[in-house]
Specification:
6 helices, single chain, two-stranded antiparallel ribbon, mainly alpha, globular
Amino acid sequence: MRVFRTLFPAESRRLPAQRWVNIGLRSLHLMGTAGLGGAYLYEAPQAAWLPYFWLTMVSGVLMAAIHIWNNGIWLIQVRGLAIMAKVLLLLLIAWLEGADLALFLLVILISGVIAHAPGDLRYYSPWHGKRMEKL
């Protein structure tokens, strides 16, 4: 039960200055994504886009870690599931040739839709069939 409550606290936790940390990470994430977009659109060599790739990945992982630390329910809500789907699509890019740009654009589309979707969709849990904000 202790591990369960650590991952799924009764009340969500917050980091000190979390809003500003999220703003900073999101800004870095957007910068990285823009650099990767340029790499795809202009077929840049790996040396030109690799720093943007790492900026995107590290900032994204840190944002996800904050969400999970706040409350692990994020993992079973549409907003967390969408992030996991995006990571899987990005991994597919590494293995599939020719679909890179299409998959990259799909990742951006998922990001835009989920970021601006109503709370009833973002906080929806497919396992519970309803909006869930805590377990």
